[in-house]
Design brief:
single chain; mainly alpha; 0% strand; globular
Length: 122
Protein backbone atom coordinates (compact mmCIF):
# COMPACT_ATOMS: atom_id res chain seq x y z
CA UNK A 1 0.00 0.00 0.00
CA UNK A 2 1.43 3.37 -1.00
CA UNK A 3 1.48 5.97 1.76
CA UNK A 4 0.28 9.49 1.06
CA UNK A 5 3.26 11.83 1.67
CA UNK A 6 0.90 14.21 3.49
CA UNK A 7 0.43 11.53 6.16
CA UNK A 8 4.15 10.99 6.76
CA UNK A 9 5.55 11.26 10.27
CA UNK A 10 9.12 11.98 11.29
CA UNK A 11 11.10 9.46 13.34
CA UNK A 12 10.67 11.70 16.39
CA UNK A 13 6.90 11.87 15.91
CA UNK A 14 6.73 8.09 15.55
CA UNK A 15 8.61 7.62 18.82
CA UNK A 16 6.38 10.16 20.57
CA UNK A 17 3.25 8.33 19.44
CA UNK A 18 4.66 4.97 20.47
CA UNK A 19 5.69 6.35 23.87
CA UNK A 20 2.21 7.77 24.46
CA UNK A 21 0.61 4.52 23.40
CA UNK A 22 2.88 2.60 25.74
CA UNK A 23 2.04 4.97 28.58
CA UNK A 24 -1.67 4.51 27.93
CA UNK A 25 -1.16 0.76 28.32
CA UNK A 26 0.17 1.18 31.87
CA UNK A 27 -2.24 1.50 34.76
CA UNK A 28 -2.69 5.08 35.94
CA UNK A 29 -2.56 5.89 39.66
CA UNK A 30 -6.14 7.23 39.60
CA UNK A 31 -9.04 7.79 37.20
CA UNK A 32 -8.21 11.51 37.25
CA UNK A 33 -4.60 10.83 36.24
CA UNK A 34 -5.82 8.59 33.42
CA UNK A 35 -8.24 11.29 32.26
CA UNK A 36 -5.50 13.92 32.33
CA UNK A 37 -3.21 11.73 30.26
CA UNK A 38 -6.08 11.17 27.82
CA UNK A 39 -6.37 14.93 27.38
CA UNK A 40 -2.64 15.18 26.72
CA UNK A 41 -2.88 12.45 24.10
CA UNK A 42 -5.79 14.20 22.39
CA UNK A 43 -3.97 17.54 22.30
CA UNK A 44 -0.81 15.89 20.99
CA UNK A 45 -2.78 14.19 18.21
CA UNK A 46 -3.40 17.60 16.64
CA UNK A 47 0.34 17.80 15.97
CA UNK A 48 0.06 14.62 13.92
CA UNK A 49 -2.77 15.73 11.66
CA UNK A 50 -5.79 14.64 13.68
CA UNK A 51 -8.22 17.55 13.40
CA UNK A 52 -9.33 18.70 16.87
CA UNK A 53 -12.26 20.57 15.31
CA UNK A 54 -13.70 17.56 13.49
CA UNK A 55 -17.37 16.75 13.95
CA UNK A 56 -17.43 14.12 16.71
CA UNK A 57 -18.76 10.62 16.28
CA UNK A 58 -20.19 9.13 19.47
CA UNK A 59 -19.01 5.56 19.86
CA UNK A 60 -18.48 3.18 22.76
CA UNK A 61 -14.83 2.38 23.49
CA UNK A 62 -15.19 -1.01 21.77
CA UNK A 63 -16.73 0.66 18.73
CA UNK A 64 -13.82 3.14 18.66
CA UNK A 65 -11.35 0.26 18.42
CA UNK A 66 -13.27 -1.32 15.54
CA UNK A 67 -13.87 1.95 13.66
CA UNK A 68 -10.30 3.19 14.03
CA UNK A 69 -8.90 0.02 12.46
CA UNK A 70 -10.10 1.03 8.98
CA UNK A 71 -10.40 4.82 9.28
CA UNK A 72 -8.82 7.37 6.99
CA UNK A 73 -7.42 10.52 8.61
CA UNK A 74 -10.68 12.49 8.36
CA UNK A 75 -12.69 9.68 9.94
CA UNK A 76 -9.98 9.12 12.55
CA UNK A 77 -10.26 12.79 13.49
CA UNK A 78 -14.01 12.38 14.01
CA UNK A 79 -13.50 9.25 16.10
CA UNK A 80 -10.81 10.95 18.19
CA UNK A 81 -13.04 13.98 18.77
CA UNK A 82 -15.90 11.74 19.87
CA UNK A 83 -13.59 9.89 22.24
CA UNK A 84 -12.38 13.20 23.67
CA UNK A 85 -15.99 14.24 24.28
CA UNK A 86 -16.51 10.90 26.04
CA UNK A 87 -13.44 11.53 28.22
CA UNK A 88 -14.62 15.00 29.17
CA UNK A 89 -18.18 13.90 29.94
CA UNK A 90 -17.26 10.83 31.98
CA UNK A 91 -13.74 11.07 33.43
CA UNK A 92 -14.45 8.28 35.92
CA UNK A 93 -15.32 5.92 33.03
CA UNK A 94 -12.22 6.89 31.08
CA UNK A 95 -10.08 4.04 32.52
CA UNK A 96 -12.56 1.61 30.92
CA UNK A 97 -11.96 3.24 27.53
CA UNK A 98 -8.21 2.90 28.05
CA UNK A 99 -8.60 -0.74 29.13
CA UNK A 100 -10.62 -1.38 25.95
CA UNK A 101 -7.75 0.10 23.92
CA UNK A 102 -9.75 3.00 22.46
CA UNK A 103 -7.12 5.77 22.61
CA UNK A 104 -4.37 3.31 21.77
CA UNK A 105 -6.25 2.26 18.62
CA UNK A 106 -6.30 5.88 17.43
CA UNK A 107 -2.56 6.21 17.96
CA UNK A 108 -1.92 2.89 16.24
CA UNK A 109 -4.06 3.84 13.26
CA UNK A 110 -2.16 7.12 12.87
CA UNK A 111 1.07 5.12 12.68
CA UNK A 112 -0.51 2.80 10.11
CA UNK A 113 -1.66 5.74 7.98
CA UNK A 114 1.93 7.05 8.03
CA UNK A 115 3.22 3.67 6.87
CA UNK A 116 5.12 3.19 10.13
CA UNK A 117 3.22 0.09 11.27
CA UNK A 118 1.36 -2.62 9.42
CA UNK A 119 -2.41 -2.87 9.77
CA UNK A 120 -3.50 -5.73 12.02
CA UNK A 121 -5.43 -7.34 9.17
CA UNK A 122 -2.22 -8.08 7.29
Amino acid sequence: MAVDPKLALSAVEVEMIRDLRSRMNRRAVSPQAAATLGGVVYKACARWGIDPNATPISLTPAEVVAAAAEADLARLSQIARGLEDYRQSAPTRWPHAVAAGAPQSILTRRLVLAGREAPKSE
